[in-house]
Every structure is written in C-alpha cells, then in structure tokens.
Specification:
Elements: H1 12-19, H2 26-34, H3 43-54, H4 57-62, H5 65-69, H6 76-98, H7 106-117, E1 124-130, E2 136-144, H8 154-163, E3 168-174, H9 184-198, E4 203-211, E5 214-217
Parallel strand pairs: 3-4
Antiparallel strand pairs: 1-2, 1-3, 4-5
Helix pairs in contact: 2-3, 6-7, 8-9
Length: 224
C-alpha cells in the first residue's frame, strides 16, 4: 500500500509536522528523507530494508559511497543528500560548542565528535582548544595514522595549545576497528599528554574515543 493511502496521522511527513520528529521511528525519519519508495515498496518499507541491511541508522550514515549506491532505492544523488545532511549536523553542533561553554554542552561535544570521526577508515587525533572559560577557541585534527595506530607527539600538542593560548583541551581519537574501549596505549598516551600540558598550565578535561557509533569518555571512566 502506498503511503498516500495510509491514514493521514500515520504518514511520516504529516506525523512529523503534527507531533514533531521525536515521534517518528528511525525507519519513518529515513522515509521522510527518501521521499519515495520503489516498485512494490513504500518509502517506509524501503527504509526498514535499508536499516536491516546496514544493521543500524549510524551504520547507514557511516557507509561509503559505493556501499550506499549498491543499496536498493539509493544512488549518488541520495548519497550526496545524506552527506549534506550529516555535514549540516556537524556544523550545527560545532557552532553550538564554539559559541558556548564546552562543559555546558557535553552532549553537543560528544555528538560532534561522533559525527566527525565515526566514519573515517583511518585513525585521527583531534584536539579542542578551550579558553579559561572553557569556550572552544579552535578544533584541530593534529595527527593522522593508519587503520591501527597514530603517532601522537606531546610536544606538538603543547605547541598548538600555546599557539591558541589555551587554558584547557579536550582530546579525541577514533578506533576504525569499531571497538571503543580504551587500550593500555590510549591510557598511557593520555597521561603523557596530561603531564606535558600541565607544564604549561593547560588542563586536559577529557579524552574521547569514537568507534562503531559509540563514544567513550575517559573522564566518565575516571581515567583523567
């Protein structure tokens, strides 16, 4: 049955407008994005199939161009639209954390880092440099590595912190393996960076690991 034959209150677009986006399931939200289905399948049916094939909404958003274009009902145009939506989300979150205190918007920081890092096939190390009021001065990708490791040099992190006259930093890196649990090497690196930055009176507020759609906070784990 086509969505136009459904009761008005059950149609995803009308439901969103009357009840708000929070009232929609992942499949219904994706159906609004897709707009149309394919032969024999409504947009909602197609959305459910896409989510089943990918495993989750985050996995679909992190999929490569070739993977997305191989999915039924998708293609380069839909892939471009999806990337535009994700970039808008990233920029919105970046504006939010830059225009306010990072500590007052911990969920925005977490979501920004997840959207920025989760889909990367290589490991990157990012630093958010903050002023004395914990407002974000700049966000920089400092190091880029292979699929398994990144060489992070504390001296370079200190140099960038001094360049920005930062009072504190939030560190982050991704695990392309999909496992977000901190390794012993991650803990050792965090302590080395914390000690090096302390020498120039820069505090390390947190270190996030992004992997598989999840985000682990060192501060929440008591590792800072």
């Amino acid at each position: 049955m086509a969505i136009t034959d459904w009761p008005v209150d059950d149609r995803p677009r009308e439901k969103l407008l009357s009840k708000g986006p929070d009232a929609l399931s992942d499949a219904e939200l994706l159906a609004v994005f897709l707009r149309t289905g394919v032969n024999g399948k409504s947009a909602v049916d197609l959305a459910r199939e896409l989510l089943t094939r990918c495993g989750s909404l985050s996995a679909l958003c992190a999929a490569s161009e070739s993977d997305v274009c191989d999915l039924p009902g998708m293609g380069q145009a839909k892939y471009a639209q999806l990337q535009a939506v994700l970039e808008l989300a990233r920029r919105t979150l970046k504006e939010k954390i830059i225009n306010g205190s990072a500590l007052n918007s911990p969920s925005a920081v977490r979501e920004y880092l997840r959207l920025k890092l989760q889909a990367l096939p290589h490991e990157v190390f990012v630093a958010l440099f903050l002023d004395a009021q914990n407002r974000v001065i700049e966000i920089e990708e400092l190091f880029r590595g292979t699929l398994t490791q990144t060489s992070v040099y504390p001296r370079e992190v200190v140099k960038r912190a001094l360049h920005h006259n930062a009072g504190a930093v939030i560190l982050a890196h991704n695990h392309p393996s999909g496992v977000a649990e901190p390794s012993h090497a991650d803990e050792t690196l965090t302590q080395a960076l914390k000690q090096a930055l302390a020498l120039v009176d820069v505090r390390v507020l947190d270190h996030f690991i992004v992997a598989g759609g999840g985000v682990v906070s060192f501060a929440e784990r008591g590792l800072i």
